[in-house]
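Troubleshooting log. The previous structure file for this entry was overwritten by mistake, so regenerating from the original sequence record. Sequence copied from the archived sheet and checked twice against the printout by T.R.
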Amino acid sequence: MPQKDYVRASRPKAKPARASNARNNRKAAAPAQAKPWLLLIVTFLLISGFVYFLWFLNQQPAAPAPAAKPEKTVKQDELPAKPTTEPYQYIKELENKEVKVEVTEQKSGGPYQMQCGSFRAEQQAEAMKAQIAFAGFASQIRRTEGSNGVWYRVVLGPYESKRQATADNNRLRQLNINTCRIWNWS
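Regenerated output below.
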């Protein structure tokens, strides 16, 4: 059986309508031709109300600007007399007062070090050291042997105060090196 070409085939022609079908088609077409009178009336009322509102606002008198208060002119004769002596004694006492404050030396917690990484592979430790070197800091790689194997630690320091170590840690964080921790030197 030969195949039929559906692409080139046209749609079947519509059958002629009967008299009863023609009446039904007119009824269906009638609402589409009807105009939405209610919608037109509501729109007209809204537009006319808005125009009236604008006209009403235009008819209102402008609000008067607040009057500027006249400034008082003070004559020298009206000012109270300046006192010859100071009525309060604490002013004279404070002028010659010397305050002594005892400053205690802060006890140093010892030297600090900053550890930025601990790796099993020496190549990873070298990569971290290079990253820190690009940030402008000198670091060291320390090989540590423990019960769980060999570790390569990347360490900065020693720092005399924790404030110096924290300042360097903050600069490293700005460069997205966020793994550094500050420890007491041991």
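The helical segments are 19-33, 37-59, 90-95, 122-134, 162-174. Archived copy saved in two places this time.
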